[in-house]
Design a protein that fits this description.
This protein is mainly beta and 169 residues long. 7% of the residues lie in helices and 44% in strands.
């Protein structure tokens, strides 16, 4: 009996450690605001997101992330995500630029633009370290982040979220 217990304890001591749990920082699309100094009457901001109600013109919006606490150089963030869908059921192309920056102000911000086609089903645009010229799992320099989009007519931004791995420091 003792040898079975010893064998079990020995096997458990060599077991692979569990992967660290990921955390998510979520931001509703309703935090997106018109980019620039002129407010837009076509951007309808509601609890469920920011919607471009125009049937003919796009609108530029900026959507900030709240990534606290985060190390001064970032790196804890492994993904930035934005979910979008159309209101009219038609296909539209949306262009979004994610910007990351360090709290060390002499390090310049890094930009990454993606364009995707979106329809009535929700679609997620994802940025990872490789989109910002990095390698590995953490996005270095991501102590702060924003996403700016040219939202086509009859399209919404529903949710933004960052995937974080607190084990990366």
């Amino acid at each position: 009996m003792r040898s079975m217990l010893f064998t079990l304890l020995l096997a458990l001591s060599f077991a692979a450690p569990a992967a660290p749990p990921y955390e998510y920082a979520t931001v509703p699309g309703a935090t997106c605001k018109t980019a620039g100094v002129t407010p837009s009457t076509q951007l309808d901001v509601r609890a469920i997101g920011a919607r471009n109600l125009s049937t003919s013109a796009g609108v530029f919006v900026v959507c900030p992330f709240a990534l606290t606490p985060t190390p001064i150089e970032g790196g804890v963030v492994t993904e930035l995500n934005l979910t979008t869908a159309t209101l009219d059921g038609k296909a539209h192309s949306i262009a979004c630029t994610a910007v990351i920056g360090s709290l060390v102000r002499y390090v310049p911000p890094v930009y990454s633009t993606k364009t995707i086609d979106v329809g009535p089903s929700e679609v997620t645009i994802t940025w990872t370290a490789s989109d910002f010229g990095g390698a590995g799992s953490g996005i270095q320099g991501s102590a702060w982040a924003t996403i700016t989009c040219n939202v086509p007519p009859q399209t919404s931004i529903n949710l933004l979220y960052a995937k974080l791995n607190p084990a990366i420091q």
